[in-house]
Design brief:
CCD27 protein; coiled coil; CC-FHA_domain
Length: about 200
């Protein structure tokens, strides 16, 4: 859950960076279009001035022509820089989109893994409950069976009923004693020829 929260925060940061980069890209493209329009206007003006004969040009037109050439050169330089910046921003946008996709994929994988772990935990809890119920049932049966054995062992003739809680060893010894006595009795009967 902590990893998923961290990834979601990272995803939000990347989405914010992506929006900012797209906004900067749109602003630069708008500025680029405006400068292209200015450049086109200046280029048109320059072409129209070139069509006039050089000797007919007054000195002010020649100066304006030189100034316009310098502005065009500067505008072309700025245009190249802004094209480079737009290209860099497009690369940043592509990289952020790839990171965003990767983060979303990772979040989905983490969520699926968490759901699988949750499902396994629920299955284990269910099995634990079933095991406990089965254990209680077996314990209850064992106690009943043990109680019947004790009752049968100490209710035979000549046996003294236990005064306190009997251990398994004591029950085993009492049963062994009964079996030995029966075997001895059987041997006596056999020796006397009684079936």
């Amino acid at each position: 859950t902590g990893v998923i929260s961290s990834l979601q925060r990272q995803l939000e940061i990347q989405e914010s960076q992506l929006r900012r980069a797209k906004s900067e890209k749109e602003a630069l493209q708008k500025k680029l279009r405006e400068q292209e329009d200015q450049l086109q206007a200046m280029s048109t003006k320059l072409c129209s001035l070139r069509e006039q004969k050089h000797e007919e040009m007054p000195p002010t037109v020649e100066e304006e022509n030189c100034s316009l050439r310098q502005v065009v050169t500067e505008q072309e330089s700025q245009l190249a820089e802004q094209n480079k910046l737009i290209s860099e921003l497009q690369q940043t946008v592509s990289q952020l989109q790839a990171e965003l996709l990767s983060s979303r994929t990772l979040i989905r994988q983490q969520q699926r893994a968490q759901e699988a772990i949750q499902s396994q935990a629920e299955t284990l809890q269910h099995r634990e409950l079933q095991t406990r119920v089965a254990l209680e049932c077996l314990t209850s049966k064992f106690e009943r069976y043990r109680s019947k054995i004790i009752q049968a062992t100490f209710s035979t003739a000549g046996s003294k009923p236990p005064q306190a809680e009997v251990t398994d060893e004591e029950v085993l010894e009492a049963m062994q004693k009964i079996i030995n006595e029966r075997m001895e009795f059987y041997q006596i009967l056999k020796q006397k020829g009684i079936k």
